[in-house]
Design a protein that fits this description.
CATH class of chain B: Alpha Beta
Order of helices and strands of chain B: EHEEHEEHHHEHEHEEH
Helix content of chain B: 25-40%
Oligomer: heterodimer
Bound molecules: adenosine-5'-diphosphate, magnesium ion
Radius of gyration of chain B: 20 Å
Number of strands of chain B: 9
Order of helices and strands of chain A: HHHHHHHHHHH
Helix content of chain A: over 70%
Radius of gyration of chain A: 19 Å
Number of helices of chain A: 11
CATH superfamily of chain B: P-loop containing nucleotide triphosphate hydrolases
Strand order of the largest sheet of chain B: 5-6-7-3-8-9
CATH topology of chain B: Rossmann fold
Structural class of chain A: mainly alpha
Number of domains of chain B: 1
Number of strands of chain A: 0
Shape of chain B: globular
Strand content of chain B: 25-35%
Shape of chain A: globular
Distance between the termini of chain A: 28 Å
Number of helices of chain B: 8
CATH architecture of chain B: 3-Layer(aba) Sandwich
Largest interface: A-B, 25 and 34 residues
Number of domains of chain A: 1
Largest sheet of chain B: 6 strands, mixed
Structural class of chain B: alpha/beta
Amino acid sequence: MRLVVRNLKVRYKNSALGFFWSFLNPLTQVIVMTIAFRYIMGSQIENYSVHLFTVLLPWQFFAQAVSDGSVSVAENIPLMKKFPFPRIVLPMSTIISNFVHLVLGLTVLVAVFVVLRVAVLPSFAWVPLFLVIQLMFMLGVLMMVAVLRMYYDDIRFILEALLRLWFFLTPLLYNIQMVMETERLTALHKQLYLLLNPLTPLMIGYRSALLEGGVWPLADFWFYLGVSAVISGLVFLVGLVVWRRYEWQLPELL
Amino acid sequence: MNDGQYLVEVSNLRKRFNVRREQAATLKRVVTRLFRPYPHEALWALEGVSLSVKRGEIVGLIGVNGSGKSTLLRVIAGIYVPTEGDVVVNGQVGALFELETGFSLELSGMDNIFLSGSLMGYSRTQITEALPRVAEMVELEEFLQVPVKAYSSGMKFRLGFGIAMAFDPEVLLVDEVMAAADEAFQRKAYRRLREFRDSGSGVMLVSHEMDAVRSHCDRVIWLADGKIRAEGSTDEVLDAYLSEIGPEAGNNSNINSGR
Ligand SMILES: Nc1ncnc2c1ncn2[C@@H]1O[C@H](COP(=O)(O)OP(=O)(O)O)[C@@H](O)[C@H]1O
Ligand SMILES: [Mg+2]
C-alpha cells in the first residue's frame, strides 16, 4: 500500500492543484450539460445538475481510471525494468488515486446537501456496496486493458471510442424511468439494457441512494444489481487470470 | 547467515524474447491476424548459461553488445522470468542498471530514494534510516532536493549507486554504469565494491573498461551469443577476449556486435 501512495505522489508532484482540477472537470461537464439539456432541450428532471453530478462522479471514476490505468502500466516500463516489485501496484495505484478524487467529490456533494439543508439520508449507506461492485469491475477491466495495451497500440483509441459510447448507454444524462417508460424500445431491449451493462444498475443505485432516499425506481432493482455484481465478479476473475499470465512479461515487451 | 556459500546459482538458463517484426501492431494487422497465431520471432538472448557467484568475490561479466549480459543480470534480479532453467539467489539483491531508466525525472533525488526504496520493498522507516548512508556516499547534499532531470549522468550514477548500496544487499549487480562517474568517484565506488566483497557479499560487474575489470575482478565470465564462451582467471579470459575482438578495440570501447 505504501507503494501506491508513493505512486500517487509521483503523479501529483507537479500540480499543486491536482485534486482541484479533477473536481473541476465534472463540474464544467455538469454546467455544460445542464445548459444543453435543461435549457435548450427542456429536460423534465428536477434539479438536473444535482442529478447529473451525482452520477458523473462515479462515472468519471470509472472512465478516468480505466483510461489512465493502461497508460500508467505502459509508462512505467522503465520502473519495471529496474525493480521486481509486484506489478499489480501500477493498476492499483491508478484506481486508488482516482478513488481519492471520487471520495473528495462525494464529500463535497454531501457538504452541498448540508448547506442546502437537504436531508442527509440513511440510504447513503448503500453507496459503499455499489462502490465495491464497481471497484471489482474496474480492476478486472483495467487488468485486461493494461495487458492488451502492451500488445496492440490501437487499444487506447478503441477504448476512447468505447467509453464515449458507453457514456450514452448508461443512465447518466437521462434517468432510468425515461428508459422504462419510452415506447420506442421493446421489452427485450430494456432487459438487455439493464442486464448487459454492469454500470447501469450501479448508476441507478447511486442516484437513488444519494438523492431519492433509497426508493428504487425499479421493482427488480436488487435482481439487476445482483446480475451486475456477478458480471463484475467474472470480469474481475478473467482480468486476474490474464494479469497473472502476463504480468512478468510486461517489461519484456518493447 | 546463509548456510550455502553460493549467493547466486544459475543453471542451464535459457531466455527467449518474442520480438515483433513491426514497430507497432495496427488495427488492420490485428484484424487480419486475429485468427492466426500472432507472428513473432523467437530470439534466444540466453542459451543455456550456468554459473555461480560465491560470497566474497567480484565476478566480471564481459562480452560484446547484445551478447546477453543485461538480460542475465535482469533474470538474476527477478525482473525477467527464465524461459528454462533455474536461478537461485540467496540474499538481498541490489542492482544498478542503465542510468536513464528507473528514475522519475520530475522527482527530486530525495523522493527518488524513497520511491526506489519502496519499490524494492522497504518501509518508510527503513528508508529513513538508510538516508544518511546514501547521502554520505553520493556526496550530493545540495542536489538531493533538485529534480533528477537536472542531474548529469555522473550525478545519476552517484544517486543510483547510493540507492543500490543503501540497504546492505548481499548480491550487487552492476551493469555498464561505472564509466559515467568522474575519476575520483569511480575510485571511491570501486573501493566500496571491494569493501563490500571483503565483508562477504558478492558482486557481478558488467563493464567494457578492460583496465577496471582487470584490476577489480576476482574472476571473469565471457558471454558470447547468449552462451558462456570462457570463464576463469581475470587475465586469461581478458586476454582471450581482447585477442578475439582485435587489439585496436582495447579500452573503453563500444564494440558493435553486428546484430
Ligand atoms: N526486451 C527485449 N525484447 C526483445 N529482445 C531483447 C530484449 N532485451 C534484450 N533483447 C535482445 O537480447 C539480446 C541480448 O541483449 P542484452 O542482454 O541487452 O545484451 P548486452 O547487455 O550484452 O548488450 C540482444 O539481441 C537484444 O536485442
Ligand atoms: Mg547491456
